[in-house]
Write a structure and sequence with these properties.
The chain is an all-alpha fold. The protein is about 80% helix and about 0% strand. The two termini are about 20 Å apart.
């Protein structure tokens, strides 16, 4: 999954769950997705999007710093399970 697509999917999820403020917050995740894409692969981007979407479905809208924390966890898991660089 490309970072732009991940952000778009989050925007759709947030749009369906929250108000327009949530949509603007989703765009703030783009640097996080780009970093994950650079350090891992599309599967890691997909995992990050899935975790953030689950948070939104559960009723919260993670801040960009919270998204970064989730990204680090995803990258750690990716490096451990897939032998990342």
């Amino acid at each position: 999954m490309e970072p732009e697509e991940a952000v778009r999917q989050l925007e759709y999820t947030i749009d369906a769950s929250l108000d327009e403020i949530g949509q603007r917050a989703a765009a703030g995740y783009r640097p996080t997705f780009e970093r994950v894409a650079e350090r891992a692969d599309g599967a890691a981007v997909y995992d990050l999007a899935g975790e953030l979407c689950q948070d939104v479905v559960d009723g919260s809208c993670p801040s960009p710093s919270e998204a970064n924390a989730v990204a680090e966890r995803v990258l750690d898991d990716w490096a451990y399970t897939d032998g990342g660089e």
